[in-house]
Amino acid sequence: MADDLERRFPCTPGGALVLVQELVSAGMTNDKFLALRPQKDRKGVNSFIRYCKGKSNNPADSGFRPGGPNEVLHRRMLKHYVELRNLGHIDSPSTQADDLLESPADSPDAAELNSQALELIAQSGSLKIEDSVFENREFIEARVTIAKRDHSFRDRVLRHHGLRCAVCSVSVTNLIEAAHVQPVKDGGSDNVSNGLPLCANHHIAFDCHLWTIEPNSKKIVICLGLDSQALGIDVEMVEGKLSQEALTARYASFCSQIGSI
């Protein structure tokens, strides 16, 4: 996947412009662009633009190119793009002209493409902070149909597997939930072998297919573009007796999901 993204968004002025367009379309603001750049000299958008342009007016020595001053920034934008894709904020990449993507760093239009990318970052706006956090919101009635749940499921899972998150150090009982390995919507049962104690964050990440469990070794498998540190996962494998059938089905679902990302 990393190689595919690097081909889709090469570290060139044109590739950077297409990548910035995708990120801005997904709602990314210049605050986040500023946070992605290397730590030094984060004084604001104007400083950021001067940084991106580099110290030379020669397009071959500045802007986005392999080994150039913005190569680190480009890699971080790619990583953030993957995170947005994993969270569903980007459905599919836009179709862009091949000549734009293939425009090398030393092409005649490199400086213009680089300027367009920086201008787009500058115009992407900042996160709007409202004066008041209260609102007279209208409420509506809604009728939904959900699967019947066994309310004793959580207590039984925690008694069987323990009172801490299976993949991190959180052990505050009120913060531990019982996750279904095979989801209820897919026919998963409330048997304790289909349950896993997880903190709320790792429960959400599990259901979003950001990580899963390899059925045979019970080792943690993490979605491409992320790592255990980013997800706050402290263990390499999950302990406890879990349904092999449920683990196998969940792993197959994970593989089909990441194959479409």
Structural features, described:
The protein has 2 domains: 2-122, no CATH class; 153-258, no CATH class. The chain is globular, with a radius of gyration of 23 Å. It has helices at residues 2-8, 13-25, 30-36, 45-53, 71-86, 98-101, 110-122, 153-161, 200-207, 228-231, 244-258, and strands spanning 176-180, 195-199, 211-213, 220-222. The protein contains 11 helices and 4 strands; from the N terminus they run H-H-H-H-H-H-H-H-E-E-H-E-E-H-H. A two-stranded antiparallel sheet has the order 1-2. A two-stranded antiparallel ribbon has the order 3-4. Strand 3 and strand 4 (220-222) form a beta hairpin. Helices cover 40% and strands 6% of the residues. It is mostly helical and 261 residues long. The longest helix has 16 residues, at 71-86. Residues 95-99 have low confidence and may be disordered. Helix 2 (13-25) packs parallel to helix 7 and helix 4 runs antiparallel to helix 7 (110-122).
